[in-house]
Amino acid sequence: RMRGFAFVEMDTEAEETAAIEALDGAEWMGRGLKVNKAKPKEDRGSFGGGNRGGGYGGGGGGRNRY
Known about the structure:
By secondary structure, this protein is an alpha+beta fold. The chain has a domain at 1-38. Helices cover 17% and strands 6% of the residues. The chain has 1 helix and 2 strands, in the order H-E-E. Strand 1 and strand 2 form a beta hairpin.
């Protein structure tokens, strides 16, 4: 089963808190949502391999292209 990620910015902490409280655990398209505040990426040390390329990128914005 595929997992999806999204990052959203809010103007205020109050909006952020309200969005998390309203949406965490909500169902969307038959799946439960997990909503939380993003955390800084942890430094996992050197395991070799160098930079694997950028985190979470791109995507089609969720629209179907027919």
